[in-house]
Amino acid sequence: MSTVEQRSAAVARRREIGEVVLAVENVELRFGGVTALADVSFDVRRGEIRAIIGPNGAGKSSMLNVINGFYQPQQGTIVWKGRRLRRMRPHFAAKSGIARTFQNIALFRGMTTLDNIMTGRILKMRASLLEQAVYFGRARREELEHRAFVEKIIDFLEIQHIRTTPVGKLPYGLQKRVELARALAMEPELLLLDEPMAGMNLEEKEDMVRFILDVNEEFGTTVILIEHDMGVVMDISDRVVVLDHGRLLADGTPDEVSRDPRVIEAYLGVVHD
Amino acid sequence: MEVLDLVLFEPVRGILDAPLFFVEVLIGGLMSGVMYALVALGFVLIFKASGVFNFAQGSMVLFAALFFVGFMDAGVPMWLAFLLTLAVMVVLAFAVERMVLRPLVNQPAITLFMATIGITFFLDGLGQAIWGSDVRRLDVGIPEDPIIVADIFINQFDLFAAVICGTLVAVLALFFQYTPTGRALRAVADDHQAAMSVGIPLSTVWTIVWVVAGIVGLVAGIMWGAKLGVQFNLSLIALKALPALILGGLTSVPGAIVGGLVIGAGEKVAEVFWGEVLGGAIEDWFAYVLAMVFLLIRPEGLFGEKIIERV
C-alpha cells in the first residue's frame, strides 16, 4: 500500500471516529524512587488509531501496562467506557474488551499457533470444568464454534500454513503476527500494540501496517500503538501522544506533533530505527 | 580384570541365561515405576503451572491416605470415602491458594519453596493429629495372588495399581491437551503475563493445579497405602519420585512418566541381577545414583527445557 493510499485511508476513517472511550487522568507511576510516569493525561476516541511515541525509557510500555492493569499507578484514574476506575485489573481489562501484544513477544511457546490463538477465546467459553472433562454437549459445541471463529482470524492474517506449528519454531515476524491473532481472537474493542513492527524487515512491516489498518477499518477496533518508525506513525495514526522521561510532551495530530518545537528538540540528533 | 568381568559381564550372562525371569523382573519394576511416576506427576503439574517446587507433595500423599483409611475404618463405604477425601483435598487446594500462594505472589521461587516446606509440617501434623500415627492396614479389595501369563509370574496387585495409575495419567494428559481449561493451564505454565493478558485468572489456575495434584496424591496414597500400609513412611515416597523428576525433567509430564518407569525398572533389575555382586540393597540407593549421574551429564533431564540463564 502506498503512502498516499494510507493517508487517504486515514482521512476516510476519521469520519468514523466517535466519543472518548478511554481516558487516563493524571496518572503517576513510581517504582521505588524512580518515576516512570508523572501526571500523564490523554484520551482515546472510539475507532481511533492513537500512537504513543517517545525516546527509550519515556514510559510508553509502562503506560500500556497501566491501561491493561499490569501496573497499578500510585495516583490518577482510568476512565474506560464510562467507568471511572482507580485501578485496572488484568482480568477485568481482558473481560471488558482490552487486548494487547508485547514488546518482547509473549507467546505460549510450547503450544501450536492454533492453540495460542484459541487461548484468546478463553473468556468467551461457558462450559464448566466437568463438561469440558467429558467433552460433551455444550463443551463440544463451544469448542467448534470458537474454532470456526479462530479460523477466520487465521485467514485474515494469512497464517494458514503455520496453523499446527509450535510457535517457538516460527520466525520472528510470524510470531508477532500470531500474537496479534491471539489478541484479535478476544474480539477486543481496544487493542494495545507495543512495537508491533520492531525488528521486522520492510516487507513484514508493510504487512503489519496493512493488518492494523484492516482491523481498525473492518472491525472498528480502537488501537493504541507504540512505534518507533516515525514514517509509520505519521501515516496511520489519527492522533499522537509524545512522552519523554515519563511526562507528556505533546498531544495532537501527526502534523501538529511533528511541528511542535519541544518534540523536535527531544528528538533532535536522536536516531530512532 | 576379574572384578570387571564380575561387575559388567557376569550379571549380563545371568540375564541371557534366564530371559523369562528377566522379563518378569522388568515387568515388576515397570509396574512399581508407574506408581513413582504418579507421585512425580504431582510435582510436575504444580511446578509447570506456578514455578513452585512443591515439597509438600509427599505429605499430600500421606494426608490423603490418612483421611481415606480413616473414613474407611469408620465404616464409610469405599466410594464415599473416596469422595469425602476428594472433598478434603479440594478444600486443601483452595486454602493453600488463598492463604499461602496469594499473599506470596511475585516472591522469589525459594520463598515459595520454603512455604511448601511449611505446608509439609502442617499436613504431617494435622493428618496425624486427627487420625493418629499408628500404621493402618488399607484393604481396597485388590487380589494379591500372582497370575501367570505365558510362563511369566505377574503380581496382580501391581498390575491393578499400574492400570489405575496409567489410566489416571492418560486422562490427565488428555485433559491437559484437549480441553480449554487444560489449554489455560499450559498457557500459564508458558508465560504468566501473556496468560493474564488474555484474561486467564492466575489464582483460579493455581487452585485447579493444586486440586489436580491433590487428586493425584489421593490415588497415589491409596495405592501405596494398600501396598505398604498407611503410615508416616508414605510421605517419604516422594523422595523416590525426585530421581524420577530429575531423570525426566522438572517441566515435562511425559518426562515424569518415563522417569518413573526407568527408575522402577532400573532398580529392580539392578537389585536382582547386580545385587549379589555389589552386596545387595541396591534398590535403596540405585535411583539416587542414577539421578546424580543425570545431574552431571544432562541436568535438564530427558525431556526438560534447557534453561539458559544470562549473567
Describe the structure using short key phrases:
heterodimer, A: 273 residues, alpha/beta, Rossmann fold, 2 domains, 6-stranded mixed β-sheet, B: 311 residues, mainly alpha, ABC transporter involved in vitamin B12 uptake, BtuC, two-stranded antiparallel sheet, 75% helix
Class computed from helices, strands and strand pairing of chain B: mainly alpha
- How far apart are the first and last residues' alpha carbons of chain B, in Å? 47 Å
Strand arrangement across the biggest beta sheet of chain A: 6-7-8-3-9-10
Shape type of chain B = globular
The string of secondary-structure elements of chain B, in order, is HHHHHEEHHHHHHH
Query: How many strands of chain A?
Result: 10
Tally the structural domains of chain B.
1
Query: Mean pLDDT of chain A, rounded to whole units?
Result: 86
CATH domain topology of chain B: ABC transporter involved in vitamin B12 uptake, BtuC
What does this structure look like?
- The complex is a heterodimer of chains A (273) and B (311).
- Chain A has 273 residues and is of the alpha/beta class.
- Chain A has helices spanning 3-14, 60-67, 90-95, 113-118, 129-134, 138-156, 172-184, 202-219, 230-236, 254-259, 261-267; strands at 20-31, 34-45, 49-53, 75-80, 83-85, 98-100, 190-194, 222-226, 239-244, 247-252.
- Chain A is globular and about 60 Å long.
- Chain A starts with a helix and ends in a 6-residue tail after the last helix.
- The relative contact order of chain A is 0.18.
- In chain A, strands 6-7-8-3-9-10 form a six-stranded mixed sheet, with helices on both faces. In chain A, strands 2-1-4-5 form a four-stranded antiparallel sheet, covered by helices on one side.
- In chain B, helix 2 runs antiparallel to helix 9, helix 6 runs antiparallel to helix 9 and helix 10 (237-248) runs parallel beside helix 12.
- The model of chain B has no long low-confidence stretch (mean pLDDT 83).
- At the A-B interface, helix 3, helix 5 and helix 6 of A face helix 7 and helix 8 of B.
